[in-house]
Each structure stands twice: as C-alpha cells, then as structure tokens.
Amino acid sequence: MIKINLIVVGKIKEKYFTDAIGEYQKRMSRFANFNVIELKDFPTPNNASESENASILENEGQEILDKIENNDFIIAMTIEGKLVSSEDLAKTFSDLAVEGYSTVDVIIGGSLGLSQAVKNRANLKISLGRITLPHQLARVVVSEQIYRAFMINAGSPYHK
Description:
The chain is an alpha/beta fold. It has helices at 15-28, 50-66, 86-98, 116-121, 135-153, and strands spanning 2-9, 32-39, 73-83, 103-108, 124-127. It is globular, with a radius of gyration of 15 Å.
C-alpha cells in the first residue's frame, strides 16, 4: 500500500477544515496510508523586508526537507506549477505505483509559498490554479483530489 504524506506548514484551528481532511483520510485508508504532517510556521511580520521573507522561506523549507526521504516522490503545490486535471492526477498516482514508489510527499507551503530548495527537490510541481486559496482550504482541496484520483483509478462513479 502506498504511503502519502501531506506535508504542510502551520496548523489548522478550524474544526470544519480538520473534519473534512479527516473524512478524506478515512475514505482513503482502503487505498493508501494517508498522513498529514504539520510543521511549524514562522510568523511573517507586517511589512517584512525581502531578507526577512527569504529567511522565513528558507527556515520553512528546511523543516520540509527534513521530513522527506531520499526515495520519496515529491509533489510541490505551487502557483507556478503545472495545471492538471483530476484524471491527470489519477494517472500520476497510477504511474508512481507502477514505477515502484512507496511514498509520495505532497507539499503545501506557508503564506509565502515554498522555498526554491523545496521546489528544486520536487519531482512534480502542480498548481491549483492562479487563484489564491487560504492554506487550510488548499489542504482540503488537495486531500479531496488525492482521494478522487484513487477513486478514478478504482473505476468508481464518485468522479462523475
């Protein structure tokens, strides 16, 4: 069974978001071992300088990279990433299983995004679109899309 780590910066305070992610985590349990790994976010001061933002990104990036194993397949969620359909994502997960990957890390950064080091480590960069989503909502959307990918691959009518 494939292991999927959703590696995220910051914690969710709203119960309705954690409940939604928990529901997809439960549904996915027949397809994958789905874990959410929440990392410390480094607060961004109002009117932070470029160097302060760069330092925050570097610190968050290092926290993320510390959670990644050498053989993991890395999907970075980033606005400049590739736009994919649900079917594309399903094919990606299917291909990864055939290629022998046992762990996939899906990464959502903090309010400043992802460090260049994390982007460079990524095997695939995906965008949810050019819109900006709150990170809590992005986690729910990504969780649902991972679940949908497995349902598509299982031939389930869920996707219709």
